[in-house]
Amino acid sequence: MSQARLKIEVARAALRYVEDGMLLGVGTGSTVNAFIDELESSGRRLDGAVSSSEATTERLKAIGVNVMDLNHCGDLELYIDGADEVDDHRRLIKGGGGALTREKIIAAASRKFVCIVDQSKCRPILGEFPLPVEVIPMARAFVSRKLTGMGGRPQLREDFVTDNGNLILDVRNLDLINPVKVERDINQIPGVVTCGLFAQRPADKVLVASESGIETRG
Ligand code: 5RP
Predict the structure, then answer these.
(1) How far, in Å, from the CA of 99 to the mean position of ligand 1?
(2) pTM of the model
(3) Quick one: which of 62, 51, 33 has its CA closest to 110?
(4) Catalytic-labelled residue, pool 9, 38, 85, 103
């Protein structure tokens, strides 16, 4: 089965968590795009959604979903999003699409975070995928030096500005054996908005699509 097909299968599986009248958090990326397509076909009627990116907002509006400002909502019942890497403890690397900060805010504001991936995203230890770090533009070089001091090899994501007007450093070579500590350490560097480790607040459930079907973790 192609990766695109697996994304559709896992997107469809996520619908079982979505109920009419829900206020839903929606992530960013190609797996989430498949989820939005499946949501439309399902005929579910949401009360509204909070979106993690301009790209997702556009897609949600195109299928008639009421996209709301998180400031005007309480906590959300459910957040659906993809990931770049997932470990066996449901800890994630996210931000391949550059939406990591809004994704982390929505994950923190949601009672349940259901992460949807195909099996190519699963790892025993995180870190093959370069870790995205969103930085305030004036702090780019300073944060790069700090990340290098932690053993990382940061690289500026070329021609990319986040929806928040910031830059992304993609960091290779970090030792992520203790991702909770690394997440905390990186987030404490002045000028870092947030890093793409979701370890302090991992996903509550991870749905993994493979040739043999959908595995539910958590
Ligand atoms: C965007 C993300 C995405 O969830 C991640 O990049 C996975 O994307 P895709 O579903 O296209 O593989 O974190 O910031």
Answers:
(1) 8
(2) 0.97
(3) 51
(4) 103
Residue 100, ligand 1, Cβ within 6 A: yes
**Which residue has the CA at smallest separation from atom 2 of ligand 1?**
95
Q: Which is nearest to 110 in space by CA: 151, 49, 171, 181?
A: 49
Q: Give, for 54, the enclosing helix (H) or strand (E).
A: helix 54-62
Least Cα distance to 53 among 156, 140, 134 occurs for 134
pLDDT digits (tens, 9 = 90+) for 91-110: 999 999 999 999 999 999 99
Q: Go through the domains of the chain in sequence order and give each one's CATH number.
A: 3-124+200-217 (3.40.50.1360), 131-196 (3.30.70.260)
Report which residue type is found at 29.
G
Residue whose entry in the numeric block shows the structure tokens 């991870």: 206
Nearest by Cα to 170 from 135, 131, 196? 131
Q: Are 48 and 68 in contact (CB under 8 A)?
A: yes
> Which letter does DSSP use for residue 69 in this model?
-
Pocket test for ligand 1, best of 28, 128, 157 (most atoms within 8 A of CB): 28
